[in-house]
Amino acid sequence: MRRKIQEYRSVLENRAYEKDNIGLCEAFCYFGGIAFVAIGLSCRGEFLQCFYYYAMQFVQEWVDGEKCLKSKYIGYEYVFAKMLKNETITIQYDFRYILDQVDGGDFCQINEAAFAEYWIQIYWLL
User: Fold this and answer.
1) Interatomic CA distance for residues 10 and 125, integer angstroms
2) CA distance 69 to 87
3) In this predicted structure, what is the pLDDT of residue 72?
4) Counting beta carbons within 10 angstroms of the beta carbon of residue 111, is it exposed (0 to 12), middle (13 to 18) or buried (19 or more)?
5) Alpha carbon of 121 to those of 1, 57, 59, 78, 81: distances in Å?
6) Which of 17, 48, 83, 95 counts the highest number of beta carbons within 10 A?
7) Are 90 and 66 in contact (CB under 8 A)?
8) 69: burial class by Cβ within 10 Å (0-12, 13-18, 19+)?
9) Spatial distance between the Cα atoms of 35 and 67, rounded to a whole number of angstroms
10) What pLDDT, on a 0 to 100 scale, did the predictor assign at position 53?
11) Domains of the chain: which residue ranges?
């Protein structure tokens, strides 16, 4: 267990997920959803940076795609689904409940900041 936690933390600290998210997916499969977040938050800054990385990817996909948000609140579950989507490892999970044991406020703020950052950049380019 200790080795698996250290491997997961290493993925977060080294930002290995930017090249390949397999380490995140393996940690999720090993620990499960809520423990994945709890252990990730044990190195809070790195985990929130990882979430921000995927939030920015989600923003870009949303802008370039045909999806539209049904509410002014951007659901963190979409970012977790993006974070853990991999061709090698298939994860079936209802990400709406992944933050049940923690305060999800930081995650929602990161999502909103990612969308704001994208649209502010577009505004200044116009």
Assistant:
1) 37
2) 25
3) 45
4) buried
5) 43, 15, 13, 22, 25
6) 83
7) no
8) exposed
9) 30
10) 96
11) 2-125
Angle between helices 22-31 and 33-40 (to 10 degrees): 120
Q: Taking Cα atoms as reference points, which of 29, 19, 92 lies closest to residue 8?
A: 29
Q: Which two structure tokens, joined as six digits, stand for 69?
A: 């948000």
**pLDDT tens-digit profile, the chain (126 residues):** 999 999 999 999 999 999 999 999 999 999 999 999 999 999 999 999 999 999 988 888 876 666 555 444 567 888 999 999 999 999 999 988 888 777 777 887 887 888 778 776 765 665
Tokens of 80: 């977790």
Cα atoms in the Cβ-side hemisphere of radius 13 Å centred on 3: 0
Question: What's the half-sphere exposure (Cβ side, CA atoms, 13 Å) at 29?
Answer: 14
Tokens of 29: 């499969």
